[in-house]
Write a structure and sequence with these properties.
This protein has 245 residues and is mainly alpha-helical. 78% of the residues lie in helices and 0% in strands. It contains 10 helices and no strands. Helix 5 packs antiparallel against helix 10 and helix 6 runs antiparallel to helix 7.
């Protein structure tokens, strides 16, 4: 059984590891849907959660000297509130609606970044709270919390290393918050944990490879790759949501 799902699972975990490092931001939104090609979506989310926690820890350790404390101070409380809101509303919120909402916001953000006029002031604190809360909410519902947080960090024109380090700490806290909630929902079965353990080396390798590549990308190309990832993630989320409607 595990051998049948191994190729899709390995590709998904490697992709998530690359995005966790700060390299290829946005592409991580493909990881859980890719794994879901070979197993139910709830199982894919459960298998991915312990991997996310370990990959977050590797990212935090690798990028510990590149963390923006001001951004974290503004975003972390809202991100935690978003996770709790997702848990409370899980039974009444449609996965399709969340996917379409996050995907549409991502594409609107990219369009707004192309316009020379009417730029949003992304240093406005309520906007940080909104994007962080949406990130925590979407992360709990469908592991798709990356785009909102990336939108906020990219719009602030953060240095690549600081963007990667700050998002690593943010998502470590968010994913750690999800662990007891997933346990309460009986998603962390021994079978799912054994599958996650088998995939762990792939996830760690993806993070380390991404850290290496991100450190050698010029700022201009780092942002181009990140925007490309957000574009693909936005389209993918909208398509996934429309298919589930």
């Amino acid at each position: 059984m595990f051998a049948d799902v191994l190729p899709a699972a390995m590709a998904a975990v490697l992709l998530m590891g690359l995005s966790k490092s700060g390299f290829a931001n946005g592409f991580g939104a493909f990881a859980t849907p890719l794994m879901a090609l070979a197993m139910p979506i709830t199982q894919a989310a459960a298998v991915m959660l312990p991997l996310l926690l370990v990959m977050d820890m590797v990212s935090v350790f690798s990028l510990r000297k590149s963390v923006d404390g001001v951004v974290l101070k503004h975003c972390l409380p809202a991100g935690v509130c978003g996770v709790l809101l997702g848990w409370l509303l899980l039974s009444v919120v449609s996965l399709a609606v969340v996917s379409v909402l996050v995907g549409s916001m991502t594409l609107c953000f990219l369009l707004q970044r192309l316009l020379p006029a009417g730029r949003i002031d992304w240093h406005w604190r309520p906007l940080a709270w909104l994007m962080a809360a949406l990130s925590g909410f979407a992360s709990f519902i469908c592991h798709a919390g990356g785009p909102p947080m990336m939108m906020y960090c990219l719009a602030r024109n953060m240095a690549p290393g600081h963007l990667a380090g700050t998002s690593a700490v943010f998502f470590f806290v968010v994913n750690a918050m999800k662990w007891p909630l997933y346990y309460q929902m009986n998603l962390l079965s021994s079978g799912n944990m054994h599958m996650a353990l088998a995939l762990l080396p792939v996830g760690i390798a993806g993070v380390l490879l991404g850290v290496y590549l991100a450190g050698r990308l010029q700022r201009q190309w780092f942002y181009r790759v990140s925007y490309a990832g957000l574009l693909l993630a936005g389209v993918k989320l909208i398509i996934d949501g429309a298919q589930r409607w």
